[in-house]
Amino acid sequence: MGTDNPNFKAPTRSPRGYCWTPTMNLEPGMVIARPVFGGPGIRVTIHLAVGSVLAASTIEQLIKKGVECVAVVQHSEPGDVAYADSVSGYEARLHEIFGPEPDENCRPLLDALLADGP
Amino acid sequence: MLTPHNLSAEVGRLARILPPFPRVVMQLLEMLRADALSLDALTRLARNDPVISSGILATANRARRIHAQPDIHDPFVAASLIGVNQLRRIVVSAAMNKFAKEEKGADFLFDHSHAVAIVAHELALLCGVSPEKAYVAAILHDVGQLCFHVMDPVAFQDVYRRSAADGRLIEREVQTFGVDHAQIGGELALHWELPEDFVSAIRTHHDAFVVTSKLQAVINVAESLARGLDIPPSPKNRLTQLNGPAVAALGINWSSAEMLDCFGRCRAIFHQTLSG
User: Fold this and answer.
1) What residue segments make up the domains of chain B, in order of their start?
2) Which of A57-61, B60-64, B84-88, B239-243 has the highest mean pLDDT?
3) Where is B26: in which H helix or E strand?
4) Set of chain A residues whose Cβ sits within 8 Å of the Cβ of B255
5) Residue B62: pLDDT band by 50, 70, 90 thresholds?
6) Mean pLDDT computed over every residue of chain B
7) Which CATH class is domain A18-73?
8) Which of B85, B241, B265 faces A106 most closely, judged by CB atoms?
9) Contact, B97 vs B110, CB < 8 A?
10) CATH class, range B1-18+106-276
11) Of the ranges B23-32, B33-42, B253-262, which is most confident?
């Protein structure tokens, strides 16, 4: 998807088929993958169901309501070399952070982060 | 050399040469204690500080410019556009930024403290802890490093640099200064008369076994999780131990769908904060 926003960062792709994206980086046409909520202290009068397609006006509403990030659908294509590279780089980095033999408390977190993907 | 016996007196002496603790953060803590945190109250507090006011306007106007809307100049209108969460974040971040900027070379504190604050906020939402308190306590958790920086910047930078390679920061701090940054930070928090659960959260944020409250557990686990998520990306990020009792006290299941979403939200919010 093309963009004129110089601050736009391409969202990373998750094995679960969606990724959390800063609200400022949303673009019209993106599809909501998780229900939108705003957290405590924010009165969210906008409810977006899974599968809703974002329009410019909806993005504006989300920013106004203080919603900081949204899960949007992001599928990786089979044979996507760039994605495969980012996964292997991510896994190598996690092994660097957790060391060669993570202790029994760290192991479940490492496993979850590996499963979650970059 | 600091010892448990002279720590309190030395921190009292140190507090006189540290920049004054941001009054706006103390007022924010008072609001949190009184459960009086609202958009209006926070905006009234923030508009008295030109740096914070301009931060609020800049955030609101950045969003408006994306949609080709004209800039606004009223902090109350701007605050209503960005919401209480982002407003609170701007207030605390700008105040702490100003606080440490007065100490030349102390900006190392920021990106890590912000990352831990974002993770603490998200964990708190899942674990039934006040996310506002968690955010503020997390912003302050490494304030002990600022003490070392003020005491002996060259020695502290040396400790900090050498620890980036192997993660043995605590050990080297004790060898060099007599105590670690969590101990001296806890003492400073006590000196500043911060709430007891804040003092405990700062004092035990590297402890692998202690749980004193759910807030302390959130800060402890958030400190580890920020490093596990590699935010901010740093060669210093190492995670070789995790406070198991704290994880259990918070009822965390790392592989649950909520926690995987928490990972994604933390990364996204941190990147948004950086680009801001």
Assistant:
1) 1-18+106-276, 22-102
2) B239-243
3) helix B23-33
4) 108, 111-112, 115
5) confident
6) 85
7) alpha beta
8) B241
9) yes
10) mainly alpha
11) B253-262
